[in-house]
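Late entry, BUP complex.
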Amino acid sequence: MQSRKPHAALLASPGMGHLTPVLELGKRLVSHHGFSVTIFVVTTDTSLSQSQLLKPSQTSYHLEVVFFPPVDISSQIDQTTSILTQLAMMMREALPSLRSAISAMKVPPIALIVDMFGTEAFAIAEEFMMLKYVFITSNAWFLALTVHAPTIDKKEEDDHVNKQKPLVIPGCKPICFVDSFEPILKPNNQVYEEYLRMGTEISTADGILVNTFHELEPQTLAALNDKRKLGLVANAPVYPIGPLVRPAEPGVRSEVLSWLDMQPNESVIYVSFGSGGTLTAKQTTELAWGLEKSLQRFVWVLRLPVENDSAATVFKTSNGCADYANYLPDGFLNRTSKTGLVVPMWAPQTEILNHPSIGGFLSHCGWNSSLESIVNGVPIIAWPLYAEQKMNAAMLAEHIGIAVRSKVLPSEDVIERSEIEAMVRKLMVGKEGEAIRARVRMLKSWAEKALSNGGGSYNSLANVAKDCEI
Ligand code: BUP
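Prediction complete; structure with ligand written out below:
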């Protein structure tokens, strides 16, 4: 008798940074492990339009993708509400949609896999007797902090926040104060409470999937599965199943890719701060000068600066509408017209990183972007802005050695043009850049092995699949 395919339901929180890896996990469960998959996507008005960008890849993998009606939390928030708190609220609002979608199914899926913001849906999984998994779309070091956070004692926390002492995570590398994840610095705030709740709920899962691979974080992964270290609190087996990233699609063509075709191999630095990142007007000016003075080729995905500094008013056009060119130094576009390309808002990132002419990535170090750089063997200039990006930057630069970064924190201060120039030159033409490039190439090949048949990440997901057999 032929056994039925196991059916898994995946729940993705709003934003491309969450939806992209969830979709890749869904594809892999279908194509490598014989699952049928339904992906439930929680949307807001803006994230819905972003999600449409993924339409073509969905259909080719026979995934059922269900977009829940946009949630509205506007009455519950003000300007001070952090993004993490907002995401937790949105996921809470979407729980009734999830419950009715599952109860409308003839047979409930065998497993519910949620991202970190969706752990409150575990109660629904229990109601329908489903296995419950969490998929951490960031790295194992971040997971380690998250499951450890609820057990941090008051004195340790005070020492970290007031005396700026490193935060110790059992069995893992400590976190320097400057690289702290935002909620840890606000122990009496709602964001901290939400974060602790997530850490506690993650530990109740039947398994924790992480978008990483063994060779990238051997020490942390060992600590997470060791009952004498973090295994005690993580409580569930931890499965490194990555790096799951959106692959470059060969058919994609665009102005930027045609421009890259004309540049020498590894000569161009790609500059992007992610789907949520923006710079101030002053920092935008410094970056433009830094790129120009480095004399290196560049592709820069430019978003309109946030207007929280006085320089912004200087750049504003007379009718109040901003044009991206108005945020750049006078004559910049002309002077760099042969060596640089400025692309407003959005560019085909994975196809760009996969292009042979790309030699570096100046990145905000979101985890998807970081993994995309690794799988394409591209070294990084780390420019973290928010969320867990400072931890990612520390890991890439200091633990793994595939990035350079400034001592100035871009989220707190302006990085001057001379330093930007120096970092770009160091990465693109310096001896240090060569060593970094060699390391990232090695990681690229380890990442390929991890995902191939019989590799560490392949086997990890196969073990999850075994638990879901019916
Ligand atoms: Br911006 C941008 N083109 O111009 P995030 C992003 N992407 O294809 P991360 C593009 O969107 P955070 C663009 O390759 C990634 O697969 C990118 O990007 C793609 O995620 C996806 O949101 C999501 O920047 O950062 O890097 O994890 O921490 O902000 O979630």
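Confidence is low (pLDDT under 50) at residues 309-321. Will revisit in the morning.
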